[in-house]
Amino acid sequence: MMLPMISSSLISRALNHLLQGAGWARLRLRPFAGQTLCIQPGPLTFHFGIGTEGNFHAVEAATTPEVSISLDASPLQLLLGPEMLMQQARISGNAEFAETLSFVFRNLEWDVEADLAPWLGDVPAHRLVLAGQTLKTHLQQSASRFSANVTEYLLHESHLLTPAPALQQFSTDLLNLRDDLARLEKRLQMLERR
Q: Is the CB of residue 40 less than 8 Å from the CB of residue 69?
């Protein structure tokens, strides 16, 4: 299908743009030149290869990738940043390559201000980035508060979830009951023998 190849090409260009200002990331990726990876965010699939300069390029889907990364992220997780996204990712394949990719993706940052400055000017670009950071911080705080409120509601008001201490006590009680039943069974067996 043509659309995934175009999408992989666009994404590889975006990743390579980020890599331009991150020589450390290209150096980490160079030893894996010629290897391929597959990234699956939800129902989409993108295939990339690593070039000799430590950059990404789109490859055909027919190749078997050395590493596969599956992302089942919700929009709230995307707001929490790349670290949270990578914590939720399922990574399989070549361990050394996977660890390198994980490190690069967690630490690769977009210098938005540098990209906006030629178009808007230095001061407006700086102010726009500050406004974006403020908005991101507010969205992260709102998502965190929303999550905490839903959890509190489910635990304490609707009683749809059981608090962890109550589950732990229930587990302890079950283990004690199991032990008591085992002792009772042994006593009954001893009484039957008499």
A: yes
Rounded to an integer, what distance in angstroms lies between the CA atom of residue 27 and that of residue 43? 31
3-state secondary structure of 66: coil
Give residue 86's pLDDT band: very low, low, confident or very high (50, 70, 90). low
* 70 close to 84: Cβ distance less than 8 angstroms: no
Q: State the Cα–Cα distance between residues 15 and 33, nearest whole angstrom.
A: 16
Q: What's the predicted TM-score (pTM) here?
A: 0.60
For the sheet containing 46-50, what is the strand order? 56-58, 46-50, 36-41, 67-71, 90-93
Look at residues 89, 111, 34, 19 and name the one whose alpha carbon lies nearest to residue 66: 34
Residue 55 clears pLDDT 70, i.e. is over it: yes
- Antiparallel, parallel or unpaired: β 46-50 and 56-58: antiparallel
Q: What are the residues facing 41 on neighbouring strands?
A: 71
What does each C-alpha distance from 63 to 17, 59, 69, 134 come to in angstroms? 25, 8, 15, 42
* Secondary structure of 137-166 as H, E, C letters: HHHHHHHHHHHHHHHHHHHHHCCCCCCHHH
d(CA 182, CA 189) in angstroms, rounded, equals: 11
